[in-house]
C-alpha cells in the first residue's frame, strides 16, 4: 500500500464537456494516473496531498504486481524456509526443528498476505485520501487525455489539466519457443500464486526470480531443476553471490545447470508431464516449468501512437521521470515502465521524486534537478539497493567492482569472510558468507557494497546510506558496530580500504 496517507485532499474532478453524441463523457482533473500498483498509489497520494485533484485508473487489482504476484507473496513463500534453515543452523534449536515445512500452511500464510487476491482494503485507502478509482483499461488518447474502457463496458475520457503519469509496470516475457503454447508454462505470477506443490519443477533463468522461486519450491517439496543459460547465477551481481546460491541450492537437492539453453517445450497430454528440450540434446521431464527469462514494459496497449511513441517500448525519461520525447512536458512514466530500475522500492522512490516535481511545476516553480537534487531520481543510476531472498540472502547497493571499472572509476576493493565475524558465528553454526565493499579511490567514498549470507538484508541500509551520502571512508571508521553482531564485518572491510 502507498506510503503517503494524507487525511484529507482537495480531490474532486469536474465533468468536462462532452463531444459529439458518440463521444464518451470527459472528466477533468489536475493529474491522471494510469496504474494503481505501489508506484501509482504513492504518486497519486503525493500529488493529491499537495492539493492537486487526481484520478487513478486500474484494470486489475489495486496494489499491483508487488502486492499480489511478486514482492509480498514471493517473500511469504520464502520466509518459512529461511526461518527453518536458521533454526537448523543452531545447536539446541536444530533438535527442535527436525520436521519439514508444512506446505499447506505456507501456502495459506501466503494467501493471507495477498488477502486472497482481494484489493478492497487498498481501494479503501484510495477513498480515504480522496483519489477516485476508475476500473478499466486506460490508454493515452492524445495530449493530456486518457480514454478508459471501463470494467462495466462503458467508455470515459479523462482529461488532465497538468500531467498524466504512466505507472503500468512490467510483465513477464515468455520466449517464443516451439511448443510453448501447448506447454502452458508458469510465469512469475503462477510461481507466486500456485495452490499446489508440483512434484517436479524446472526453472528456466538464473536471475533473481529464478533463484528465489527455485529456493522456495525446493523447500516446499518440489524436485527443482534450475536451468541458467549463462555460466553463473545472478550474473549482474558480484560473482561470489551466484556461487554461494548455486552451492546452497545443490545442497538442498536442486539440480543446478549453467550454460543450459532451452530449445523447446513439449506437453503432448494437456494434463500430463512436460519435457524441456536442451540445446545439448538433453531433456528434462517435469510437471511444471517456470520461465523466468526477463520482463518487458506494459506499454503494448497504452495508446502510445497517439503521442508519437512506439507501442511496446520502454518509456525514456529524464531524472524527474518526465518522458523525453513528448512535447509539452506533461507525460511522466514512473516505475518499471521506464526501465530504470525494476524494483518496487525504487519505483516508489521515483514516485516520490516525480510527484514532487509535478507539484513544483504545477505551482510554477523550477524542479530541482542536478545530482542528488530533490526532483532527480539519482539513486536509480548510482545507488540502487536490492535484496535477493535466496538461501543465503544476497544484499547489494550501488556498483559492483566490474561496473565501477567499466565506468573508469579507479577502485579499491575490500573483501571479507563473513563466517569469521563473531556475530555471524553466533548467528549460525558454520555460517558461510562473504562481503565486499567497492570504493572510489580518488574520492575516498564507497560506490558499492555486496553482502552474501544469512540475515544480511539487515546490513544493507547502512551501506546504502554510506553510498548515497558519500560518507568519506575515514569517517566511516568512526561508526562503531555493536558487538557481537554481523555488522562487525565493517571493521575489517574499512581497515582494508584505509590501509
TrEMBL record:
Disulfide bonds join 66-71. Residues 384-490 form the Pyridine nucleotide-disulphide oxidoreductase dimerisation domain. FAD binds at residues 75, 138, 168-170, 336. NAD(+) binds at residues 205-212, 294. Pfam families: Pyr_redox_2, Pyr_redox_dim. It comes from the Bacteria. Binds 1 FAD per subunit. Residues 29-346 form the FAD/NAD(P)-binding domain. GO terms for biological process: 2-oxoglutarate metabolic process. One of its GO terms (molecular function) is flavin adenine dinucleotide binding. Keywords: FAD, Flavoprotein, NAD, Nucleotide-binding. Its cofactor is FAD. Residues 10-19 have a biased composition (Gly residues). Residues 1-20 are annotated as: Disordered. Belongs to the class-I pyridine nucleotide-disulfide oxidoreductase family. This is NAD(P)/FAD-dependent oxidoreductase.
